[in-house]
Amino acid sequence: MAPDAVKWLANGAVAYRRMLELIEAARTSIRCETYIWGDDVVGARFLAALTRAAARGVGVRVLVDGAGSSALRADYWHDLEAAGGGVRVFNPLTFRHFSLRNHRKLLLVDDAVSITGGFNIAADYDGDGISAGWRDFGLELSDPAALRQLASSFDSLFADHLIRNWLMRRLRKGPPRRPLFYQQPGPILFSGPRLTRNQFSRELLATLREAQHVRIASAYFVPGLRLRRALRAVARRGGTVELLLAGKTDVPLAQHAARSLYGSLLKDGVRIWEYQPQILHAKLALLDDSVFVGSANLDARSLAINYELTVHLQDARLAAEAGATFAADLLQSKAITYDAWGKSRTWFARLRGAWARFLITQVDPWLARRQMRDIP
Known about the structure:
The protein contains 13 helices and 15 strands. Helix 2 links the parallel strand 2 and strand 3. About 2% of the residues have low confidence. Helix 1 packs parallel to helix 2 and helix 8 packs across helix 13. The chain is α+β, with helices and mostly antiparallel strands. The strands form 2 sheets. An 8-stranded mixed β-sheet has the order 8-14-13-12-9-10-11-15, with helices on both faces. The two termini are 35 Å apart. The protein folds into 2 domains: 169 residues, Endonuclease Chain A (Endonuclease, Chain A); 163 residues, Endonuclease Chain A (Endonuclease, Chain A, 2-Layer Sandwich), CATH 3.30.870.10.
């Protein structure tokens, strides 16, 4: 990938500013996809910009998730649709299919430039992640291969936003179909219930086998046994593994589950910090000069249930820039030692952690697998 085809976005405020610039300059098309669209000042700012773009003839399409954006009022999109924009809700909430979600975040403008990362479109993410706003990262991409993958995947999910065609699923013979965008070459790794093998998980594990310096920032860290073993193996063979996890969180259940896993990691030499200034929402993995950035967390939901996208690049310059941000964040984080962790593990903390891990790693995937049977 050309050096100018990727740019590091160090926080939500930087990303939002660039996203709005791109929307205002759009000439032909805008694809915008997010899990949460907030009915707040940030959501209103983006809605107004997209409405202006549609009014001047730009083809605007917006895809939001039925659970993440369920709080929006029924007429929220009226002005955008009246201006010619198209809005669809991915898998509107029902009891039968509540588990299958689109957790991706993407802005693609004129098929020429895109922005993706961990941040939704909501006021919570508008800040530097230190003095204000949740801590998050992203990338701006103009690589043609990546843009083709992103455009194709958006178009597929936009067209397939209603996934409850259970009758046709039962009438059709053969395995569930796999969208073509899963097979396109490029740096975008996709996750989703119709993907036989998770591209992100597979490539992350493969890269870990050779890695010597591993730095991971993860908002919700409940990885499976294979990934935990891979991290411990790096530390045991003399490499360094640094995990930046949530000190403040919007999902206490995930934090309880994550903390229950610290012991074996710390014992094998993995170093763990918890970020203190704001809620950590980032999804970043730096394995030597290999960079993974996107919407996927390191938990069962992102790795096996949600529709996700992750950018994977081998880029020393980008790794250095992201690594500098990571190092600065460690200075504002609390180091977790094995002794301190052990003292915190009261019988109640152990019970709470085990129960949280059971819900996240067993119950949630079980429910999702049952509901995946209906995916056409």
